[in-house]
Recover the amino acids of this structure.
């Protein structure tokens, strides 16, 4: 009989968004005539920009003739895409060497898989509330995590606690689920704390394209010293609407070298390369061609147009909450609006209430951690029409 990975017993029965989908499907089946508006999972609704589409077509065409056909690609991703990403960083004033970039099918896989590089006895700091993948992937590997409290008092931007000697720190800014964004001084504090402790920051910047204030850092590498202590994960899902197309990238600087127990030096870059070349055969050439087009100046301009559309939705949601005098966070440099559940409800209770009474799907804060128990998340990724209708329904509720 196989001995199973019993750490799975320590997980919630299903992944947050699967649980929501399941509840919504049950409701929809029981009420087939009702129009449900989905503002739950952060899934985009606008089509890809024309440049991305042209890039994808070019990739398909290349597959049709023997002189341009591609089989297995380089394990880190094609150089043309790594260069395009490095240039995108450079246009935002950040230096990232293309050789440090690994292309993947998205930040979800990489933020989940990275935990394999670290031993079980690390002190792992994870904010609460948080994107559930960070916690679940550690639990699957039998690791214990220490929570950093994010709450209304610290604006959901927890800062280092020097009484804890962390080894690994997960940060996400702009934050999922709260929409809060660390400023430069705050990230400098985190980088200094990591360097003092010889810790590694796992920085998820999947929502960086929503930052509209040039004074706010869009990458951990905007902070001096970060190359010596941070891995960054990013994705085209929210930047370019690639939630279904799938492409992401992870930066593992070659400076990240630590001593093993036997005194030998180990490079996280070399380990990640070893891990990826063993377990991953790369993102499809076609998708990488689409992604390359996204990172051209015109491709990014098209992405920004879509982002502005979503930001208008965020404002619509924020206006409704302001009108109702409901306290909220995020929604400015983020597609997420995080608010206190009205009338003292708990988040799953409010989820059911909103679905039953207004046919709106959101995400209960409890799914992101204990500190989210009385909070709720709405996404700005819907259409204007649906967001407007959802807000009219919300308005009529209480
Ligand atoms: C979310 O809704 O939190 C995100 O869409 C999940 C993800 O990016 O995997």
């Amino acid at each position: 009989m196989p001995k199973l990975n019993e750490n799975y017993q320590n997980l919630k029965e299903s992944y947050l968004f699967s649980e929501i989908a399941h509840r919504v499907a049950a409701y929809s089946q029981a009420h087939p005539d009702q129009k449900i508006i989905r503002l739950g999972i952060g899934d985009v609704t606008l089509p890809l920009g024309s440049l991305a589409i042209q890039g994808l077509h070019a990739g398909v065409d290349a597959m049709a003739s023997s002189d341009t056909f591609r089989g297995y690609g380089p394990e880190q991703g094609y150089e043309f895409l790594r260069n395009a990403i490095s240039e995108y960083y450079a246009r935002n004033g950040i230096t990232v060497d293309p050789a440090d970039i690994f292309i993947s099918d998205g930040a979800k896989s990489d933020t989940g898989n990275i935990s394999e590089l670290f031993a079980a006895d690390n002190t792992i700091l994870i904010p609460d509330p948080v994107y559930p993948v960070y916690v679940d992937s550690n639990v699957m590997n039998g690791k214990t995590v220490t929570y950093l409290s994010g709450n209304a008092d610290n604006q959901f931007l927890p800062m280092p606690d020097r009484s804890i000697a962390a080894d690994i720190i997960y940060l996400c800014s702009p934050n999922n689920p709260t929409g809060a964004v660390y400023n430069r001084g705050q990230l400098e504090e985190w980088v200094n704390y990591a360097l003092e402790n010889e810790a590694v920051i796992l920085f998820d910047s999947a929502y960086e394209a929503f930052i509209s204030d040039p004074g706010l850092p869009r990458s951990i590498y905007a902070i001096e010293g970060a190359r010596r202590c941070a891995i960054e994960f990013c994705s085209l899902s929210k930047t370019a609407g690639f939630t279904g197309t799938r492409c992401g990238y992870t930066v593992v600087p070659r400076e990240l070298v630590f001593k093993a127990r036997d005194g030998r030096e180990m490079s996280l870059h070399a380990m990640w390369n070893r891990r990826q070349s063993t377990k991953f055969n790369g993102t499809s050439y076609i998708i990488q061609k689409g992604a390359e087009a996204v990172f051209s100046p015109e491709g990014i301009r098209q992405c920004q147009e879509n982002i502005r559309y979503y930001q208008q939705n965020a404002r619509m949601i924020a206006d409704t909450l302001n009108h109702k005098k409901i306290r909220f966070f995020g929604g400015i440099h983020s597609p997420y609006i995080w608010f206190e559940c009205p009338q003292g409800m708990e988040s799953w209770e409010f989820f059911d209430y909103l679905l039953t009474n207004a046919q709106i799907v959101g995400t209960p804060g409890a799914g992101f951690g204990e500190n989210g128990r009385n909070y709720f998340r709405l996404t700005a990724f819907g259409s204007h029409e649906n967001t407007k209708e959802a807000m009219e329904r919300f308005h009529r509720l209480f």
Remarks:
- Residues 297-323 form the longest helix (27 residues).
